[in-house]
Amino acid sequence: MLSVANQLIHRPILASIDTKAFRHNLNRIRELAPESKIWSVIKAKGYGHTLNAALQGLDLTDGFALLDIADAQWLRDHGWQGRILLLEGLFHEAELEQADQLQCDLVVHCEKQVQWLESYKGKSGHEFNVFLKLNSGMNRLGFKPAQYRTAFHRLHASSYRMHHMTHFANADQVDRSPSVGEQMECFNDVTEGLHAPSSLANSAAILWHRNALGDWIRPGIMLYGVSPTGTFADIVRSDLQAVMQLRSQIIAIQELKKGDHVGYGGRYQAPEDMRIGVIACGYADGYPRHAQDGTPVWIEDAGEDKQGVICPLAGQVSMDMITVDLRDAPHAKVGSMVELWGKVIPVDDVAQMSGTIGYELICALAPRVPVEIK
Q1: Half-sphere exposure in the Cβ direction for 217 (13 Å, CA)
Q2: Which fold has domain 19-227?
Q3: d(CA 349, CA 233)
Q4: Which CATH number fits domain 244-373: 3.40.190.10, 2.60.40.10, 2.30.40.10, 2.40.37.10?
Q5: What is the pTM of this model?
Q6: pLDDT, tens digit only, all 374 positions of the chain
Q7: Fewer CB within 10 Å, N- or C-terminus of the chain?
């Protein structure tokens, strides 16, 4: 397989990032929330998809939201002139000058950040856009309701352009407290009379709580075509497209006799005479080591119908290889293409068979995996 980036021969594993799917998902979000502006969340290097691909595919967003000021610098250096929101604000007071130069918007979630901005106001006169975060029940970041209004008035008095923000803990679940309704009730009570734009909805709220959006929404995982709940069936009708496709090839085939064992620990035992395909992908590439036997892998099968088939993982994932049961792919051979996740196999399905969520798998793609941006 050739790497598009440098035309060198590589081990046959490749992550393809589909910028058209990015654009499709962004347009779908606009359809779901036509009255709201969009912060496209690209923290963790675009959830493992690279900042380069995110900038290409999401260039029509209203703004990018991220964590690291170095990523904000990267966006400016590569031509992005729109708004940038630092989702956890500043980690050190010394970052204020750089955030000012980069024209970043700031989330403010603690007393120390308020003090930094009050002090900086006297030095520069710059009016940051401030998204003041209310802890309405998530209990991670943000001001408790009793402290929120005081923080708002202090920053407003310093002439910062104020916005309200909160984050939902359970927008992707039912019968969990705090519910979206409970958090919205808290938010509305605390912000009553404090007129400012709001930013409320994450991906799950955009999909299932469109009465709780706010003026700015913050889609993250749905931009990448992955489910907020960790279950692909929950978004199968949402018309979202997978952006990342992880592919490789069969590099060897083993002919087993009934009773033969496969891989470390011999976890899988052949129930009959059969073929096992060895694929160039392992946990050092970001494939989950805890994937169970039966985890789906799509295999190109060169039969008369030219259709691929889904085959089950068979045996312990190792550092550089996985093994699959080829009984349903009689025409598969060395060199046959496989998809580990993407267009056919939802990453959520692989994650469920591995005791995790799709978020982790796409973010954990290893640096050694070549990336093709299409």
Answers
A1: 29
A2: TIM Barrel (3.20.20)
A3: 9
A4: 2.40.37.10
A5: 0.94
A6: 344 445 556 899 999 999 999 999 999 999 999 999 999 999 999 999 999 999 999 999 999 999 999 999 999 999 999 999 999 999 999 999 999 999 999 999 999 999 999 999 756 666 899 999 999 999 999 999 999 999 999 999 999 999 999 999 999 988 889 999 999 999 999 999 999 999 999 999 999 999 999 999 999 999 999 999 999 999 999 999 999 999 999 999 999 999 999 999 999 999 999 999 999 999 999 999 999 999 999 999 866 666 799 999 999 999 999 999 999 999 999 999 999 999 999 999 999 999 999 999 999 999 999 999 99
A7: C
Contact indicator for 62, 80 with CB cutoff of 8 Å:
no
Supply 245's token pair. 């496709």
Cα(152)–Cα(127) distance, integer angstroms: 14
